[in-house]
């Protein structure tokens, strides 16, 4: 605006100067000096009026612009003042709100007797208690539903078990009973805080069942050798009268060595009963171990002797070698005595054992072919197959449920034994518990927790079983020194 006004004033000054200069030129010429140039043509009167009107119009526009700028400046000042007033009003309102909030908190604290922090903690505790209550209610509902489902499954399992009569087979072949002179001996067998019975179970891998049965202790295990060692150990302890962990361990190893001689005697009796001569002493001992093995509920040693008689009779009828058939039939299941130590089908394992201990090739071949792992090439091999089928197929000879039960327990032990640092594994409580004894130098206390969890997860993934299986890992450290 100021620039426009200045320009207009300058233009007006120039016009006035031109007019004054034009009038003064004739006077300068008359005073002397060089003749002035020819004067320009004077503007006409109409041109001057027009220029003057333009100047006046410019001045009016300038004044109008100045008035508009003044009005806008006043309007801006008014708005700025209004904003300042509103800002002050908002600040006052915020202060009032803060004051009212503080007064409300103070009033609430006076009424409740709690500070704001305490009230917050109380609220969080209430929420936590409510959440815990809801979770417990949901958990109880899930447990009740699980129990109902478990009861339905248990009824189904029991009905199938009763129909197949598996209980009688299991009771006859997985349980031994040791008679006690009096019920007072039960307390001594258990020991203070159960240390004696724990030592017995950990050493033998047999479940010692001490209940209300008068003057008796029940030994339960699927492995007949273990159960026999436990029976002999307990009987020796009862005769001696001294029952404590150190004496239990000593007696256990005595019974274990004595059982080896019993096994050899059982093998010799079987060889004599079957009418076989010249059998290697190692094969005789392995044959004796079959006394404590069962196949589908049938005693393997009795089955082998029975097969030897049947094979000899059929060979005589067919004109084949009765000696070869008798010998192969007696030894056909000998691979089962070491099947838990050597990988492979028991028929092939047995044939390899027979060859290594000097048996003829005809005998080894008939042993390998009795389950068709090898194609039968001789009449004697076919006779051994028939004898095996006849002995197992007679009424009451075998019960499939027991064999599945024993196989499940054996698989359970093998699954746990494949972990590093495991020394011994025992399936207890009819497969409801598995006890794993580790080497203290290779497995730490923290490693025990990891090992038990790993075994439990593998059991869940690889085995099928009813109910649940408890995995117990035992680590025992000993320090031994000798005074000389």
Question: Describe it for me?
Answer:
68% of the residues lie in helices and 7% in strands. The protein is elongated and about 165 Å long. The strands form 3 sheets. It has a 3-stranded antiparallel sheet with strand order 1-3-2. It contains 16 helices and 8 strands. The chain has 5 domains: 65 residues; 49 residues; 90 residues, K Homology domain, type 1 (Ribosomal Protein S8, Chain: A, domain 1, 2-Layer Sandwich); 124 residues, Orthogonal Bundle (Hypothetical protein af1432), CATH 1.10.3210; 73 residues, 2-Layer Sandwich (Alpha-Beta Plaits), CATH 3.30.70. About 5% of the residues have low confidence. With 484 residues, the protein is mainly alpha-helical. A hairpin with a 6-residue loop joins β2 and β3.
Quick recap:
This protein has helices at 2-30, 45-112, 116-164, 166-174, 184-190, 195-204, 224-240, 245-274, 281-289, 300-318, 322-331, 346-356, 361-368, 379-393, 400-417, 445-462, and strands at residues 175-179, 207-209, 216-220, 294-295, 298-299, 422-428, 433-438, 470-475. By secondary structure, the chain is mainly alpha-helical. A three-stranded antiparallel sheet has the order 1-3-2. It has a three-stranded mixed sheet with strand order 6-7-8, covered by helices on one side.
């Amino acid at each position: 605006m100021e620039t426009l006004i200045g320009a207009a004033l300058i233009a007006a000054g120039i016009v006035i100067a031109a007019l004054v200069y034009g009038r003064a030129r004739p006077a300068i010429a008359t005073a002397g000096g060089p003749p002035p140039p020819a004067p320009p043509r004077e503007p006409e009167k109409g041109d001057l009026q027009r220029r003057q009107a333009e100047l006046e119009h410019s001045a009016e526009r300038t004044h109008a612009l100045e008035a508009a700028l003044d009005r806008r400046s006043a309007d801006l000042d008014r708005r700025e003042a209004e904003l300042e007033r509103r800002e002050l009003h908002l600040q006052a309102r915020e202060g009032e709100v803060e004051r009212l909030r503080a007064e409300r908190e103070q009033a609430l604290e006076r009424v409740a007797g709690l500070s704001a922090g305490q009230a917050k903690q109380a609220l969080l505790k209430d929420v936590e208690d409510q959440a815990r209550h809801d979770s417990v209610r949901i958990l109880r509902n899930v447990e009740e539903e699980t129990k109902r489902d478990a009861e339905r499954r248990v009824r189904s399992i029991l009905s199938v078990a009763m129909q197949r009569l598996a209980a009688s087979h299991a009771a006859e072949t997985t349980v031994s009973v040791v008679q006690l002179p009096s019920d007072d001996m039960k307390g001594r067998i258990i020991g203070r805080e159960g240390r004696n019975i724990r030592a017995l179970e950990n050493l033998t891998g047999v479940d010692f069942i001490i209940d209300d049965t008068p003057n008796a202790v029940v030994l339960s295990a699927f492995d007949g050798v273990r159960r026999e060692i436990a029976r002999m150990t307990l009987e020796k302890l009862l005769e001696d009268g001294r029952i404590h962990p150190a004496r239990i361990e000593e007696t256990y190893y005595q019974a274990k060595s004595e059982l080896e001689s019993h096994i050899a005697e059982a093998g010799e009796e079987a060889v004599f009963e079957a009418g076989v001569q010249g059998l290697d002493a190692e094969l005789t001992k392995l044959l004796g171990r079959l006394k404590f093995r069962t196949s589908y509920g049938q005693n393997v040693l009795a089955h082998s002797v029975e097969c030897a008689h049947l094979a000899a009779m059929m060979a005589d009828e067919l004109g084949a070698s009765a000696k070869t058939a008798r010998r192969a039939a007696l030894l056909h299941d000998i691979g089962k005595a070491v099947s838990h130590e050597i990988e492979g089908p028991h028929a092939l394992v047995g044939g390899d054992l027979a060859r290594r201990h000097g048996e003829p090739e005809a005998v080894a071949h008939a042993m390998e072919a009795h389950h068709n792992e090898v194609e039968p090439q001789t009449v004697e091999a076919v006779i051994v197959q028939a004898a095996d089928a006849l002995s197992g197929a007679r009424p009451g000879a075998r019960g499939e449920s027991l064999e599945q039960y024993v196989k499940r327990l054996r698989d359970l032990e093998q699954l746990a034994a494949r972990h590093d640092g495991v020394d011994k594994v025992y399936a207890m409580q009819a497969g409801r518990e598995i006890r794993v004894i580790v080497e203290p130098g290779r497995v730490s206390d923290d490693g025990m927790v990891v090992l038990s969890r790993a075994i439990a997860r593998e059991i869940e993934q690889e085995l099928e079983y009813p109910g649940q299986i408890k995995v117990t890992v035992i680590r025992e450290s000993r320090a031994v020194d000798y005074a000389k």
